[in-house]
Amino acid sequence: MEKEGAKRILCFGDSLTWGWDPETQERYSAGSRWTTILQKNLGESYWIIEEGLNGRTTIWDDPIEGNKNGRRHLPILLESHRPLDLLIIMLGTNDLKARFQVTALQIAQSAGTLVEIAKRSNAGRGGNSPSVLLISPPPLGKLAIWQEEFGEGTEKSQNLARYYSYFAQVNQCHFFDAGEVVKTSDIDGIHWEVTANRQFAEALTNKVKDIL
To answer: CATH number for the domain including 197?
Structure first.
């Protein structure tokens, strides 16, 4: 239960935030997802709101998976969950799919567009905008059966962090490179194993405390 006066944090992402288990292809239990581990680490003075959607992109319409466009979703979620103290954005992995035909720079620029939406909003305390933490997802692993789906995505993914860092500076928001603490699982080359979820939550705990 949310404690009165708790700092409210919206985690806006894709299957990495939803908690996809690369081995079972089901959702991790609450005790194994980075979002819920982060909640436990931060304690009752913080409230984590999970908003992970499998297949979500930054700003692209997906002709196969349907309504996955993060640019459409974000304004609604900012309004429904306000007031927010912090918005965490971690998207871009799905943008690497071959059908979108976009560069690493364009993906980072699109993530920056989401930061702009948040900073123009009144979803923070007192009608202000919330603080924003932009996170670059780690590089893809061994894709195996997903190689055709992602095409040149592995190479592109290795360049995301430096571009995300740049657009975080441009948009004057906080930045974190997930690739510094997380290695994508080679089971499917896309998602994280339990250990990675825990490592990420530990690193993010300190980052969130520094921001708030």
So the answer is: 3.40.50.1110
